[in-house]
Structure formats: C-alpha cells, structure tokens
Design brief:
This protein is of the alpha+beta class and 370 residues long. It has two domains: 160 residues, no CATH class; 172 residues, 2-Layer Sandwich (Alpha-Beta Plaits). It is built from 15 helices and ten strands. Strands 1, 2, 3, 4, 5, 6, 7 and 10 form an eight-stranded mixed beta sheet that branches. Strands 8-9 form a two-stranded antiparallel ribbon. Strand 2 and strand 3 form a beta hairpin. The C terminus is likely disordered.
Amino acid sequence: MDKKLLRTLSRLGASDGEIARAAEEGWLTLLLLDKTLRPGLPQYDRATVAGRAGVDPDISRRLWRALGFPDVPEDAPVFTDADVEALTVLEQRRVTTIVRLGDDPVDALVEQVRVFSAALAKVAAALTDQLAEMIRSARDSGLSDERIALTFIDEFNWPSLTKLFDYTLRIQARDSLWRKLANEDPNAPGARVLTIGFVDLVGYTAISQQLDPHELSALVRRFEQLAFDTVAEEGGRIVKTIGDEVMFVSGDVAAAARIARRLTDRSLDDVLLPPARAGLAYGSTVTREGDYFGPVVNLASRLVEIAKPGSVIAADAVHAALVDDPAFAWKRLRPRRIRDIGRVEVWALAAVDISVDQAADQIEEGPGAG
C-alpha cells in the first residue's frame, strides 16, 4: 500500500485491522472519507463520554437521538474525543441558558439540535451525492480504489468546506434576522405581511416514470437552478424545494409577481423542462424554523393546483396591491371554491409582454394536472 495513504489513515485514527480489511475488500476511499469526517479513535462508551463532558447520561442520550441516530449499546466504545468536545459545547450552551432564563431548558436544546440536524442532513445528502458520483466516475474510468483514495487526500479539503459552511450560515442567519425583526408589526407577534408563491412542473409525476434516474436528476437540477436564479434576481427567497415544486417568499408584491411570471415563462422556453405554473397569495404569515405557515400559505399552495401550464393565478389581495402597476395585465376569473379554504376571488396575471387573453386561455376551469 502507498506509504502516504497508510500514514494518513493512521493519523486519522484508523486501526491496522481496519486498513488491512479496507485494502482487501476495496473500500480504502470510503475509510479515508469516514476518518476525515470523523477522525479519532473510538474508545469511549456512552457513560464515559457523558462523564468527560460533564453531561447527565440521560441528556446525552436525548441529544444523540435528536441528531437522528439510534441508541448504541451502553458498553460499546464507539465515541471519540470529538464527541466529548461536541457534548461539552452543548452542555456549556445549556448552562448559559439556565443562567439567563433561570430554568433548565433541556427540551429547548434538544429541539434546537433536532432542527439543526434535520437541516444539515439535507446538506450532507447533497454533498455526498456529488462525492459518490465522483467516486463512481473514477472507478468507471479504471482507477484503483487506492489511487482514488490518494487523490482525495490532496483534493478533499474539509477545513475549507467548513469555512464555506460557516460563511453561508452566517449570511443566511443575518438575512433571516433582518427579515424577522426589521419593520416588524408590534401588534402581531410572529406575523409578517408577505407574498407567498408556489411554482410546480405540470405532468411531473408521469414524466418521472419515463426517465431514468440520471435524466430525472438532471431535470430536477435544472428546475432548481432556474428557480433559484429567477427568485434571486428579484430579491426573493426560496423557502423549500420538493421535487417538482418550489415555494418562495418576498416582501415585495411586485417582485413576487415578476418571479412567478418569469419562472413560468422561462419553463416554456426550456427544452429540458415541462411547463410550469404558479399560485400567488399575499397577507399575514407566521414563520417558524425557516418555514412559513397560515391561510395565505395554504391559499397559494391551492391556487397552483388549479392552474394550467404556463399560467399564474393570483389571489384577490395580490391583484389589489398591484392593480395600479402598469407592468402587469389582469383578467378577472370566476370565483373558485378552494379545498379547505372556501370561495375566493382569483385573477389571471400576465406581464406586459403577454396578452391578457393569452393568460386567460391558460387558466384551468377545474383542478389542474400535476
């Protein structure tokens, strides 16, 4: 085995037995990545790691579960010095909160860990998708597992990646604080007046059954790229993506209308994508853990369901806010009875370069297909 690879694995905490087995079975690259991401020698059982961190064993168990991992046998030496350090940081955070609030907010800490872990699990999935694809491509090209592992020693710079994570988290947190606290209505704690938009791809379910995994992945990536670019151009924010659907939010009604119109228009010109459709609603929303809730969100979600390809359906409040804006053309539609909401006024929205009649022709008289 290459001496550089052997030294690196040993330094990261891999045992001689692990290295020999990985070399024999062809997973040296996986072992290298495993030890890079979680270095150190597993040597502590649950009670020991809790004692070293000064944490109650029951609390340490709850925090481990909040991270999304199953219980391990009580006497299994699976924890490292990094686990002790992380648990120590969590305990310091809990004690600081106790001093500040005068009580023991263990439940709040566990919930916070659970939320962070769930969010970071999505980041980890995206990152490892790329890493796995790189490794598969290298194998297909004929490179040995040992050669691939050596390449990752030089190219997989985890410290640089964590700096990027830190930077991204900082700017996202800064942006989130401004959205939540700037110009907040003191009479409506937790509520903000915003425009909520949903955009989805028409016929995605049927299309997904006809494409192989690589083609489907390319389609989803293209839609997400188009959505993120379009939303960012107008200063909005993507709340979440769910396969063929994107939810976005904006504090500017006109910007939200442009996002919905441009995103649906661009989908019609994209050779890779099926047509998109959009629903818009405007009003008071409640935000929690980065997501948005309330009747306005539900209405926007329902409106996208009754649209035909390429159309944008807006709630009456969106029309009222923009009726005097010459950048948009409108067509009033018959009132709709929306599931779980009731009877609502709806409008067809079109930018000035699209005729009102064309927009009206795109409106579904019944539930749309998706």
